[in-house]
Write a structure and sequence with these properties.
Structural class: alpha/beta
Oligomer: single chain
Largest sheet: 5 strands, parallel
Distance between the termini: 16 Å
Bound molecules: BIS(adenosine)-5'-pentaphosphate, magnesium ion, zinc ion
Number of domains: 1
CATH class: Alpha Beta
Length: about 220
């Protein structure tokens, strides 16, 4: 591993703001933003075999099987733009995925250098997911209350229509939060033990205030 590599993971519950912060980090630190959720949604939209297999789990708010997601990440990390660093959003989500990522990186003499946990109280998570809107054209994210577009339902950047993610309905959101607590939260201890975990406090703070914390956590030892 070279000293200058930033191999970063964003950890946090559904709606914690991983995608929101990742967009800022990717620009600020010139890291490729690798979101397994986005890659899986693209596969669903394209109707690939993997997409068809993943769709049911995603719509129910369950995790897609480890083998599928690990394969996606392995292929993505092998692309040249991830050679000098990366920003993972939504992966790993199980201890198995974390162990397999460590093994993958160790094989190339690399390691995870920083894990940033975005910590947000549960009631805020539900509110954020309920109000989230996304652009059909360019993918930009909005929130009807906290980050509204200038014109209702229309993207400020490209003018395309905004939509709601199919897993942002109330029942699925509650299941996603339960799945997070049961299967993903144990990663906090996993990365604490490896001394790479730092926590950003995202509750009650605007995205730019959270990003100011994230920058400090990325710069510090
Ligand atoms: P994924 O797409 O990763 O969804 P998620 O983890 O549930 O997280 P979200 O994308 O919903 O939230 P976020 O933290 O990115 O929040 P955002 O920035 O948008 O995964 C989807 C599904 O794919 C999973 O359920 C699973 O089925 C499958 N999957 C993916 N990865 C997998 C893996 N590794 N293994 C197995 N299965 C996998 O913000 C949310 C809203 O809040 C937005 O509207 C935003 O504008 C607003 N907001 C953000 N920050 C703030 C703030 N500070 N203040 C106020 N509002 C804010
Ligand atoms: Mg996201
Ligand atoms: Zn747009």
């Amino acid at each position: 591993m070279t000293d200058t590599q930033r191999n970063v993971i964003l950890l946090g519950a559904p709606g914690a703001g991983k995608g929101t912060q990742a967009a800022r980090i990717a620009v600020g630190y010139a890291l490729p933003h690798i979101s397994t959720g986005e890659m899986l949604r693209a596969a669903v939209a394209e109707g690939t075999e993997m997409g068809l297999a993943a769709q049911r789990s995603m719509e129910a708010g369950e995790l897609v099987p480890d083998e599928v997601v690990i394969g996606v990440v392995r292929d993505r990390l092998a692309l040249p733009d991830a050679e000098k660093g990366f920003l993972l959003d939504g992966f790993p989500r199980t201890i198995e995925q974390a162990e397999r990522l460590d093994a993958m990186l160790a094989g190339a003499g690399r390691a995870v250098t920083r894990v940033i946990l975005i910590d947000v109280p549960e009631d805020e998570l539900v509110e954020r997911l309920a109000g989230r809107r996304l652009c059909k054209g360019c993918g930009k994210g909005y929130h009807v209350l906290f980050d509204p577009p200038q014109n209702d339902g229309v993207c400020d950047v490209c003018g395309d229509e905004l939509y709601q993610r199919s897993d942002d309905n109330e029942a699925t959101v509650h299941n996603r939060l339960d799945v997070y607590r049961a299967q993903t939260e144990p990663l906090v201890g996993y990365y604490e033990a490896r001394r790479v975990l730092k926590t950003a406090h995202g509750g009650g703070k605007m995205p730019d205030e959270v990003f100011a914390q994230v920058e400090q956590l990325l710069e510090g030892d």
